[in-house]
Amino acid sequence: MSDKYILGIDIGTTSISFVVLDEKENIIEAFNKASPILTEEKTTDPNVIYSSVKCIIDEIIEKYCVKSIGFTGQMHGILFTDENLKALSPLYTWQFSPSGEYLNEIKAITGENIYSGYGLATYYYLKKKSTAPKNSFKILTVMDFTANKLADNRNIVMHSSNAASLGLYDIEKAEFKLNKVESLNLDVNLLPKVSAENKIIGYYKSIPVYIPIGDNQASVFAVYKENSIVLNYGTGSQVSLITDCFKEVKGIETRPFMGNKYMLCGAALSGGRAYSLLEKFFRSFLKAANAETDDVYGILNELALKAESKDLVVSAKFAGTRENPSEKGAVTNISEVNFTPENLTYGFLKGMAQELYDFYKLMGETREKVLVTGNAARKNPALIKAIEEVFNIKTEFKNIREEAAFGAALFALKGENGEF
User: pTM of the prediction?
Assistant: First the structure.
């Protein structure tokens, strides 16, 4: 067994995950704890997150000889800090959603689309509302805030995967479009420097802390194989395809990836939230019938596997889409024969798969393998069945616990080995 270990941390929306790898990329330990509960506005306290993460890191390095620490976490969201990395605002998560009028204003001024929940859309909204903190030093993602505060680093450099997630970013040039940011009357000095390199940003108790990366990239990096697409199901869901050349596709995001490659990504806002919506529906019914259970998901999974009809159609866009936040989900093609709990449940899962398949078709490239990751898929064989039906490709489920945290640890390990 290795006597040195790599720690990966994923600061997610619903949970904070920790993975300890040995130098042969074997998982030694993996676990998670709940993230702080979001407010109705989809914000949370970054100080609570930092304190919780630091406490667990201290416990882990007491137990293992940690060689390096890698970070990832929820992209798009931002918080404001002062020069001492004191948080001046809550964390506005990717689910924080200014009304469409502000996004339309950004489009009119800059000529570019920026999605709801993206950091610079949030900053623009707060600026317009005069609620952006004054005398701020930087705007950061929650993982950049946590990692740099842990490493006591004031010379902030943000990885391109996180920088691109804020919006108004030139992926080919690996820099923010400063003239367009300025056109929104936003302070460009609040934007960190950007790097595509795998680099150490500082040290915690003499342990190197590596630059944080985006959770989508980390999850894909953890499992990626050549000639494959990767589907990830968590609170949201994504389909990701890696390509050597930069390309732009309407309705698809092009994101930076490791090793000078690019990622085409279709991101659905619902993902696991769609299935959660169905679970809450049935749970409410059971409560009213005085027949409560702790395993509604388990019952739904069993029902879905027994579905006899596949023609009940569910659009899983219950949380809207990035391009159209006001879009709603739908259940259609209902008949007296197919409207059963089994078919409705399977219809939800098939709708979750269809949304990602539609993104994949837009990308205009074909791959021979479908790799599936994420907790929402791990616990649900019926979802795997629906994916295989929609994509018409045999899936390979990558049974890696806490994929994003694993990817963050792997990124740090590659940095230690000088691979890129």
Answer: 0.80
